Fold this protein.
Amino acid sequence: MPKIGFGVKSIIMKDGKFLVLVKPGGDPDIPGGRMENGETERKCLHREIVEETGLHVDIFNAIAQWSFYKHPQLLISGMTFLCGYNAGDVSLSDEHSDYFWADFNQIDGLGLSRWFRKAA
């Protein structure tokens, strides 16, 4: 039986655009990560967003639920939340090499996952 981990992701909105992070290999990503023991989804999301971007946000609604196998013995299940920019300047962690703010009409060309495009 696989181990199950829980994660959260965010779509951070600012001035009608959303934040896209870029992994060192060039793949697009959105802020988020795995929950630690005892964390709620919102507490984890706030922590991950600050760690990965330095931004402070308001967390609104959960807009998507998803799951995937990271490898055959680890299933990651999670939720994506809509967030609004509140304060701060983007300051990336080592997990990402770049970022940009994208319009929703750019989604199909970004290479983001199908669940992300559906949620957006």
User: Anything to note?
Assistant: The radius of gyration is 14 Å. The helical segments are 41-53, 114-119. The beta strands are 3-14, 17-22, 28-29, 32-34, 56-71, 74-87, 98-102. The chain has two helices and seven strands.
